[in-house]
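F.,

This is the one I mentioned.
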């Protein structure tokens, strides 16, 4: 039986906003999102509410039909407002039933539907059914690196006024070019070392976050450059090692990759802010993507 753990609002938000060419919600085994015991008077759903679960006459949860739980990559159970792993609670009992046939962790959303919909009201919808084409073309928001403070995305997202307003973004670090209150960081293939930019980027982010503003990190494809900047900030903000910061950012957006050059610069950054290097550049530099930034 798979383990049952709590997941944070940020974790589900990021799961719903993953994209690799097309929105990942179109992948049949990407996410099993199970809504349990949400009040009927709430006439709205998450952007994608895949399944609801039924009880038998004895009040025992029934297995989901036509769902191959053992192939699912991510499983999240939510109810109205669960905040802990209460083994007697309905959310836990639902998750326990699902865990019997799952090979991955089964998550229970901390705070439930009520808290998630309060923090991300723009992800609610009354729509129930989606075609594969609709899922593939569904717009995705920037992923959330530090809750309510730092986000990471691409230029298309940065140029979408609705997304900026929904996320309450007030400043952008554009590692190419953009709008609003922007720090532009030119990083060409032949440019000076980006190490000298990390401190400037972190100072810019801190100056806005300290004033209560939210910041968006942007590069053309939202891949290499902005993830390197996000990792550098997490290292400084959370006092993480390079390995810890990279793992943290990759959890927010699993598709990110570093090339060898940025990995070396992050290693130098780690040495600069902590006076030590904790990981070989070859460990993070195994996925080299020279043409996508």
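My design for it:
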């Amino acid at each position: 039986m798979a383990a049952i753990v709590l997941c944070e609002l940020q974790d589900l938000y990021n799961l719903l906003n993953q994209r690799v060419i097309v929105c990942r919600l179109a992948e049949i085994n990407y996410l099993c999102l199970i809504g349990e015991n949400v009040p009927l008077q709430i006439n709205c759903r998450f952007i994608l509410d895949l399944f609801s679960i039924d009880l038998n006459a004895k009040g025992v949860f029934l297995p989901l039909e036509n769902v191959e739980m053992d192939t699912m990559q991510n499983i999240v159970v939510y109810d109205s407002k669960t905040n802990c792993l209460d083994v007697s609670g309905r959310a836990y009992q639902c998750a326990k039933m699902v865990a019997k046939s799952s090979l991955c962790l089964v998550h229970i959303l901390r705070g439930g539907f009520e808290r998630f919909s309060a923090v991300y009201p723009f992800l609610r919808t009354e729509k129930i059914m989606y075609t594969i084409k609709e899922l593939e073309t569904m717009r995705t928001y920037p992923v959330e690196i530090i809750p309510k403070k730092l986000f990471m995305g691409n230029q298309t997202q940065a140029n979408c006024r609705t997304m900026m307003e929904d996320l309450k973004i007030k400043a952008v670090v554009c590692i190419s070019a953009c709008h609003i209150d922007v720090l532009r960081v030119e990083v060409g293939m032949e440019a000076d070392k980006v190490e000298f930019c990390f401190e400037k980027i972190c100072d810019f982010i801190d100056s806005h976050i300290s004033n209560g503003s939210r910041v968006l990190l942007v590069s053309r494809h939202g891949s290499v450059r902005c993830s390197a900047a996000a990792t550098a900030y997490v290292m400084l903000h959370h006092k993480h090692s390079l390995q810890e910061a990279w793992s943290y950012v990759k959890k927010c957006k699993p598709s990110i990759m570093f090339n060898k050059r940025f990995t070396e610069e992050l290693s130098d950054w780690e040495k600069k802010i902590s006076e030590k290097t904790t990981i070989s550049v070859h460990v993070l530099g195994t996925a080299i993507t020279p043409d996508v930034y």
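The chain has two domains: 4-136, 143-284.

Talk soon.
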